[in-house]
Amino acid sequence: MLLLHRAMVLRLQQACRLKSIHSRLCIQACSTNESFQPQRPSLTFSGDNSSTGRWRVMGTLLGLGAVLAYQDHRCRAAQESTHIYTKAEVSSHTSPETGIWVTLGSEVFDVTEFVDLHPGGPSKLMLAAGGPLEPFWALYAVHDQSHVRELLAQYKIGELNPEDKVAPTVETSDPYANDPVRHPALKVNSQRPFNAEPPPELLTENYITPNPIFFTRNHLPVPNVDPDTYRLHVVGAPGGQSLSLSLDDLHKFPKYEITVTLQCAGNRRSEMTQVKEVKGLEWRTGAISTAHWGGARLCDVLAQAGHQLCETEAHVCFEGLDSDPTGTAYGASIPLARAMDPEAEVLLAYEMNGQPLPRDHGFPVRVVVPGVVGARHVKWLGRVSVQPEESYSHWQRRDYKGFSPSVDWDTVDFDSAPSIQELPVQSAITEPQDGETVESGEVTIRGYAWSGGGRAVIRVDVSLDGGLTWQVAELDGEEQRPRKAWAWRLWQLQVPVPAGQKELNIVCKAVDDGYNVQPDTVAPIWNLRGVLSNAWHRVHVHVAP
Amino acid sequence: MLLLHRAMVLRLQQACRLKSIHSRLCIQACSTNESFQPQRPSLTFSGDNSSTGRWRVMGTLLGLGAVLAYQDHRCRAAQESTHIYTKAEVSSHTSPETGIWVTLGSEVFDVTEFVDLHPGGPSKLMLAAGGPLEPFWALYAVHDQSHVRELLAQYKIGELNPEDKVAPTVETSDPYANDPVRHPALKVNSQRPFNAEPPPELLTENYITPNPIFFTRNHLPVPNVDPDTYRLHVVGAPGGQSLSLSLDDLHKFPKYEITVTLQCAGNRRSEMTQVKEVKGLEWRTGAISTAHWGGARLCDVLAQAGHQLCETEAHVCFEGLDSDPTGTAYGASIPLARAMDPEAEVLLAYEMNGQPLPRDHGFPVRVVVPGVVGARHVKWLGRVSVQPEESYSHWQRRDYKGFSPSVDWDTVDFDSAPSIQELPVQSAITEPQDGETVESGEVTIRGYAWSGGGRAVIRVDVSLDGGLTWQVAELDGEEQRPRKAWAWRLWQLQVPVPAGQKELNIVCKAVDDGYNVQPDTVAPIWNLRGVLSNAWHRVHVHVAP
User: Fold this and answer.
1) Chain A residues in contact with B422 (beta carbon < 8 A)
2) Is the dihedral of CA A50, A54, A55, A57 positive or negative?
3) Residue B384 and which of A321, A323, B127, B454 are 20 to 30 A apart at CA?
4) What is the CATH number of domain B187-398?
5) Domain limits of chain A?
6) Could you report the per-residue pLDDT of A220-234, keeping only the tens digit for each?
7) If you measure CA to CA, which chain B residue comes closest to A372?
8) CATH code for residues B425-543
9) What are the strands of the beta sheet with B474-475, ordered from one edge?
């Protein structure tokens, strides 16, 4: 522990030197009007790779070392504590040029000089720039400790104007007016309907994605469902009985809990757009998240309604309680064979990471279909029926299908392609990010990998030279069950940067246990809806001299 | 019919003109000592695409038109019918330079000038060059008709020496001495053990591969099993009973019949060798074939021995009756969950295309594991047991696994990779072949596509420009059942050759219903054993001016 302490102080001193250099760089950047490029501090420890581990170490480090390093701030904090700022003023301070301000409760802090020393990396603190820290501290409870508050106090510059409470302007004619408040870290691709993804630096911070930053893919306004009057209608089989299940009724079925990764078919669509325009939201690498779901098994509920597997092909159709102005509800279906297979573990989930489902994720009940595209995990579930054919919903028949690159909107025949169910193997790099500058010496590359259909990821290959040579990454996260690998694997590779290298073309590709691989390039899998974008993920980074 | 007849005579006349031109080309080639490049005749009809259809039309065509076209051969046939030739002499006539000879019964024919007019294409007749026609006529019974014999008679040049019966030299010390006689069309990759594949031009001629040319992958000498004394030993579960089943006993289980494609993990290994040396047989595109299998379900047999699915992972281990000099038998295993799943349709097969299994394919009983790599379809099955771990056989644990391109024989850790079970999506072009010259105007591209795990092939994209632009091929062959797409789809694309094009870089890639795709290139999936070679298949062809 003593050694660790000494090492920390040493590293903190190094970090402070880095900080000084960087301050000069910033000034230079301002004077030449160049854009701000956050520098990554060398404050990571190669000996402890788990993110919680890093936080813990960092917390300790701050408690022990902070006093030494920031004595100069104390005076300034004392001098400036009487100033009053509006929220608007705070929100305009989001860059080194303007200063980087945050709030906690009614206090305002200028953390410009601390950003590069933030143990979780500058980019994570920057997510809170111009606004409150609370939503982020709620995600990372390690912050809520006296030594962190003490440290922060040194940066206090004033108080929020107590009268500055912005009353939200609710347009009652706006169908989205009742949508829930979202976490500020989410990168919004569309406000109405709300579609947003966690930033890469948070996405793989945890094996289980915290509910507030779980990617959100809504097709319509979020319905406001009263849990007391909620009923799930299950159409009975011929000779069986139709069910109208309250939440309490659903809780009476045996409860199952599974960890499942959900991915939108449009994840990484932005890379397809770079090849040729597509119709769809510009998802980057974050339309994927993992949660621990709890609920009743769909097969148990269907059995109670008298359904059983039949020789002929049939489909379980789901309808959401979200609907468009004409009253058309979101809908989708999955094959009955999957629904009735206990091994497929399809859930009617009412819990997400131990909590009731958040409104954005289907409160009070959503379908969770492990290994299958997100579009079939119908939220705000209202009705379940078994039909000889797939759901007639737009989203089942005229969307979420893959086509040849040669097919355009003039030639597309949606009936010619099957609806997407299982998804192909996928992986992406979340750290470092494209365009970033990494330190020379050693680089840590992190990301996620997942495959559909319960196929486990067995290997992730990483290249620093655009795919000419490869190294095998270390798989983190939970070992998956055979044939039930519903959740992703996080992975990382710590690797020396070849001497003299000025840039790296980092590439990752995953292999699943059916030995399926990702295609090399995007263009040959381009399709007019921009779905199924699972080519090798590539980031180009500069190496600091 | 009359119209058809007129069209045929017209095309035959065109073909004859082509023949004359080609004869000149051949002479020219001989004089400049260039290698023989068979020309493809324009004798295909775009209106009828099925291969059997083509054969039927061709048969009729020959019956009607042959007399007109080949009167000049009659005289020569009469003159030369008294010559006597040895088998050795016949077998030395296999090229246009030497003449192309074949035999039928005791008669010898010089078919040099007929080769380019062969309705099935010159390459198929060339397979029989220098030897007997019978093995090929056995495959394609349409030949055995009076008008075909009449046509052939025109090319007769003599008789085989009746004393020229080569006694096979059997070395009794040779463990392979009792291997069966094989079809001469097979392209042999290894004689001992015997490993051979059908040539591309025959591979996709039929949806069901005829038994004699089904690819053969033997690891050891072929055992000679007496069906009367044959017993299959099934180790019983604790509390169950071990079984010793005769062939008659196996026949008493309910019989199931399914069409299943088998593929060797090493199919298309020769393309990996072009990247970097690998250890393994140089399979081209033919280590894949399709048969209709009949037999008892493994789950029924296991149930009779008292086995049932258990919560803990278990494996069904198979042992063949083929063994090496130390007595070690071929062995492999599959997960118990697959074996016990009636939907997985794992068979103990005793029939192949309505016949008892040929010796090369496991007589009297082999395992057929739909959707799974060929190596687990253990032949000459002797013993079945259920174990907590995978088979300890070399072929389960130290072979048939995939690795990163960075892994070599110094660094390989076989325990780090799972044994190959399900195979990834695959496709290949069988027509035209690499290096071939195609006619300008229109080209017909044919091939096969298949995926493991019961995933259906939903699309095959074909490119003529190396992958820049794509067209969707037409899928032939049987529509597959959902989740039980055990058999391949044949496909074809008839497409105009862009004007002025001197060469084509033809590429194919398939997509399965999990929207898995093939990788673009070979190098990034290269592995030291050369397995799982499923990159886009590419052939380069010249266009005739």
Assistant:
1) 513-515
2) positive
3) B454
4) 3.90.420.10
5) 70-164, 187-398, 425-543
6) 999 999 999 999 999
7) B514
8) 2.60.40.650
9) B426-431, B442-450, B489-496, B474-475
| B524–A521 C-beta distance less than 8 A | no
pTM equals 0.81
**CATH for B70-164, options being 3.40.50.720, 3.10.120.10, 3.40.190.10, 3.90.550.10:** 3.10.120.10
User: Same CATH fold, B425-543 and B187-398?
Assistant: no
Residue A54 is a catalytic residue: no
Residue tagged active-site, from B54, B93, B143, B446? B143
pLDDT at residue B91 is higher than 60: yes
Set of chain A residues whose Cβ sits within 8 Å of the Cβ of B517: 424, 519, 524-525
**Contacts B472 to A, Cβ<8 Å:** 404, 406-407
Q: Which amino acid does the sequence have at B479?
A: E
H-type alpha helices, B121-195: 122-126, 134-139, 146-153
Token digits of residue A130: 């111009």
From A26, A183, A264, A299, active-site residue: A264
The interface predicted TM-score (ipTM) is 0.80
Q: Which residues of chain A have pLDDT under 50?
A: 1-78, 80
Q: Which two tokens stand for residue A508?
A: 């990752």
Could you report how far apart the first and last alpha carbons of chain A are, in Å? 33
CB contact under 8 A, A514 and B422: yes
Model pLDDT for residues B488-541, shown as the tens digit of each residue: 999 999 999 999 999 999 999 999 999 999 999 999 999 999 999 999 999 999
Confidence of residue B457 (pLDDT cuts 50, 70, 90): very high
Dmax (CA) for chain B in angstroms is 80
Give yes or no: B297 in active site. Answer: no
Distance of CA A41 to the CA centre of its chain: 24
Residues of chain B contacting residue A411, judged by C-beta atoms under 8 Å apart: none
Q: Which residue of A has its CA nearest to B406?
A: A470
Q: For residue range A33-82, list pLDDT tens digits in order.
A: 333 333 333 323 333 334 443 444 343 333 333 333 334 444 444 454 57
Catalytic residue status for B143: yes
B381 membership: H or E segment, kind and range: strand B381-387
d(CA B5, CA B383): 59
Coil/strand/helix, residue A9? helix
